[in-house]
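Troubleshooting log. The previous structure file for this entry was overwritten by mistake, so regenerating from the original sequence record. Sequence copied from the archived sheet and checked twice against the printout by T.R.
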Amino acid sequence: MLSRLRVENFAVVEKVEIDFSPHLNIFTGETGAGKSILIDAISLFLNKRISSNAIRSGADKLIVEALFSAGNDEFVLRRELKKNKSFSFINGDMVPFNQLKEKAEDLLNIYGQNEHIFLLHTANHKIYLDRFAKNFQLLDELSELTHDLKKSIKILEDLNTKSEQLNERLELIDFQISEIENLKMEKDEDKTLERRLKILSSSEEILSKSRMLIQDFYQAEDSVYNRISERLKDLEYLKKIYAELVEFDKEITDIYNILPELSALLTTIGNQVEYSEEELNDIQQRLHNLDRLKSKHKTDLDGILKKYLQLKEEKELLLNVEFSIQEVEKEIKTGLEKYKGINVSLRKVRKEKALQLSRLVEGELSQLEMKRATFFVNFTEVEPDLENFSEKGTDKIEFYFSSNPGQHPGKIKEVVSGGELSRLMLVLKSIVEDEGFSTYMFDEIDSGIGGKTAQFVGERLKKISLGNQVICISHLPQIASFADKHFLIQKKVRDNQTYSYTTELSHQETVQEIARLMAGRDVNEDVLAAAENLLTAVKKRS
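Regenerated output below.
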């Protein structure tokens, strides 16, 4: 939704800020007031090229800034034009124009201009017809089959590639498997080997230090144990005199009691140290081999063991690759047959619904003073194969149109005028509602119509605006009377310069403007009363 628009120094616009309704916004004004400048300004988000003449005379910079809301997200799009320089921004960040355009195309649909127009993109015709036909289940099935087929084709391509390189790859896999198997290591065994290597490399020092500790702590005549034993009676004597020594009694006793246990443990450690040069060399070689594989595969022992399992699985797959190719080829053939069946069903439904759509569109167009207009859906049947299938089916679908009798219907983008395109789009959007909230801008939609036709257009615009935002430029009171917000565009001359202003109208001002649209400059009480009655009647019907 377009929430707010700010335009500075664009053509005759010096500065304008507009707050839009989320529903139907109507812009009116006298001929030559610059009503289309609004559309032109917003179109700057879609057109890369801007003439420097677009900058208002006397100004050095043109700015167009728009605030959009989409769900819980907000986007500020901005373009600035200086002499020979153009800048694009999204939420304050400078971006390439194409990125700005892509975002704008997601948020805007403009009709009556030769720019981002739904109907001029042929791919949208198929999407619209399917929404009208409610082909959701068939499309879901087709989408799933398309996904499965693409996946199977990719698997087959990989298998064929592997088949071509089978022998070479198998030799490499066997070599890599053999390397890992020769390690003869289990998970975390490298930590055990590293500890054992440290013991073997330091066996003499371990034995020497453990023996000295046993002697000094427990076995020697002047060991710590014996000396504490000799002095415990002295401590007992002093404790009777100095009570503060009692708190050290437990610590001294613990040291005294633990020394025999520590000596026994050190004795066990010393007895277990058996130096083996053969074992030392073996461990060093195994750890060297492990380090080499760690460097080769850029991982640790755990990663190498996982790699081993992957290699075994790949080897099994390669050994069965020919069988696998045959199985996947069967899957692809079966999947393609299913796809063809659903594609035929989809084609049948589309053709039936295309006839209904054509009748509905022509009926609606007849109420827009296009009674002799012709609309039909052109089909080009394309049979699916492995080079041609998609989630939307393979048939080519395009809307054809003719506004005059005797004129052969042609492709919309080749035969339709701006006003016809707006009315055709109005009809299509009123027949099938959008799935999500969108912003539509209509220009030239009321050219060459009036009376009941204008009222019909207003009703259709109002219907679309119930679930979408609509911005429409009009000169007809029947259309303007449906507005949720009515804006007046005026042009004034001041100091020999032309200025265009946009004003949101109050109810009374809207009555005045509706009356002007009815009677031109000859507005009297009767015309004002008629304008009030028109607004009241529309309000009752809405």
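The chain has a mean pLDDT of 85. Archived copy saved in two places this time.
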